[in-house]
Amino acid sequence: MRSVLPNHTRPIWAEISASRLRDNFHALQAAAGPQIEVLAVIKADAYGHGATECAPVLAGAGAQWLGVTSAEEGLAVRASLAILPQGMSPRVLVMCGLWPGEEAGILDRGLTPVVWEPYHLDLLEAEAHRRNLPAQSVAVHAEIDTGMARQGVTPGDLLERLLARFTTDSPLKLEGVMTHLASTEVGDDPQNQVQMIAFASALQQVAAAGLKPEYVHAGNTSSTDSGYIPQDLPALAAGLGARAMTRAGLALYGYALPLESATDRVIQSEGFLKPHLASSLKPVMTWKTRIVSLREVQCGDSIGYNATFVAPGTMRLALLPVGYADGFRRALSASNAEAGGLVLLHGRRAPIVGRVSMDLTIVDVTAIPECSIADEVILLGESNGERIGADEHARLAGTSAYEVLCGISNRVPRVVVS
Ligand SMILES: *Cc1c(COP(=O)(O)O)cnc(C)c1O
């Protein structure tokens, strides 16, 4: 268990189910198929689930590759893997490049950086020369920008110049070539095809430069769910004698975006791009707290900041020690005019009333008379067949499950359970 505070006593925590994390990884690997390896993305502190908690579990489940945000996250993940038996340490891909000062740690701990800027190569080469490392001993993966204009080198001249750096006597080795797709949840979005075509031509440039990467990777949760990109990948990789890999994060934690269609085709009923994966996923995090106070209010009493909720009759209210400083979104607030979020108490849904404040939230337990102080409350998770998911919070907050999950703050300790 970890927390920013040394002696965590506040009754709020997030349980991370190791068995669900393993099951989701296996479901992803099954959906990707035997020809595609799945890189488990644990960036952004494993989407709020705790990267150092999740890394050893995923390695134990057979993950050969983990993806982290930065060198500093990679170093923490490496340290967390020290508990594993010898020979069971997965590779760690640093997905957002590197910054001056990070090259030593990358080489010390055998992290594998994604590179696309010439300065990335300058930093690694200089550090490798300083250490007299042999030719082709530092593996890197080059990212190609095939149409997202975020990270990556553009095919053509810029790629040509980047590839020219991988000479036989360079300490660097082009181990992987990757791209990232912008619109995979929209299965028939023409952008997917455009990006894959650009990727194929970039791979031809790689081959023409005489380079033989071992891995070619693209795609994410949604492309694995739709089955669209994984179908294309093995052939692309095979053209270079490489192995196909895809990178997935969200599904590991038990969520997937609903698949959409650009042409308004109803995806499932037409049998076009069926979700392969979504139905077998289980949320890994159960976010919990306890009731710390109970009170009764009368008809006409106002509740919370700015009195956005006025009791329509006698109500029993429970106070929960969770607020937006924990990442419990303020958009879950409720007024008389507009319902807000819910929590689970004794297996039933209890509505939030009034504004979610920084540290505290009030819920209506009038319909759950057996509630008492210290009762467990589920903020995200399941109980008695009822479920509140990060996707439900996301809908109310006008955002995505990704942002809800990685927005749960460090004030909430993560506890790994079986
Ligand atoms: C975050 C990320 C992924 C994983 O995306 P999910 O939708 O969470 O599966 C894959 N590749 C890159 C480059 C990413 O940044």
UniProtKB/TrEMBL annotation:
Its EC number is 5.1.1.1. It catalyses: L-alanine = D-alanine. The modification N6-(pyridoxal phosphate)lysine is found at residue 43. Residues 284-417 form the Alanine racemase C-terminal domain. Keywords: Isomerase, Pyridoxal phosphate. Its cofactor is pyridoxal 5'-phosphate. The active site is at 43 (proton acceptor), 305 (proton acceptor). CDD domains: PLPDE_III_AR. Substrate binds at residues 150, 358. It is an enzyme of class 5 (isomerase). Gene3D superfamilies: Alanine racemase, Lyase, Ornithine Decarboxylase, Chain A, domain 1. GO terms for biological process: D-alanine biosynthetic process. GO terms for cellular component: cytosol. Catalyzes the interconversion of L-alanine and D-alanine. May also act on other amino acids. This is Alanine racemase. It comes from Terriglobus roseus.
